[in-house]
Amino acid sequence: MITLFNRKELLITYDMSTLAKVRTILESNNIEHKVRTTNTLSPSSFNSHTKTRGVPYGLDHSKTHEYKIYVKVSEYEKVFYLINKNN
């Protein structure tokens, strides 16, 4: 099980196809992973300029969701090698 104390951030991406490609590699090698998705447009107490009135004009829609992939610290090097080998 991946917890806050035994995980390491493998990748941050805004591209869903990159996310799918990496997850396919992880799943085909039976590597446990966790994905955290953040909507960059959602209002937050840390981001006071963000409004809930829709998408601002001129915003790059490809950057509205951030995906972070975490793996166990003990498997990080193996996973890093697998991903770089397949690119």
Task: Please give a structural write-up.
With 87 residues, the protein is α+β, with helices and mostly antiparallel strands. It is built from 2 helices and 3 strands, in the order E-H-E-E-H. Strands 1-3-2 form a 3-stranded antiparallel β-sheet, covered by helices on one side. The protein has helices at 16-28, 76-85, and strands at 7-13, 33-39, 65-72. It starts with 6 loop residues before the first strand and ends with a helix. 26% of the residues lie in helices and 25% in strands. The longest helix is centred in the N-terminal third of the chain and has 13 residues, at 16-28. The radius of gyration is 15 Å and the shape is globular.
Keywords for this structure?
about 90 residues; single chain; 2 helices; three-stranded antiparallel beta sheet; alpha+beta
Helix-strand layout with pairing:
Blueprint: E1 7-13, H1 16-28, E2 33-39, E3 65-72, H2 76-85
Antiparallel strand pairs: 1-3, 2-3
Could you list the spans in which at least 5 consecutive residues all have pLDDT below 50? none
Q: In DSSP terms, counting alpha (H) and pi (I) runs of 4 or more, how many helices? A: 2
Quaternary status of these chains?
single chain
- Gross morphology is globular
A few lines on this structure:
Helix content is 26%, strand content 25%. It is an alpha+beta fold and 87 residues long. The model has no long low-confidence stretch (mean pLDDT 85).
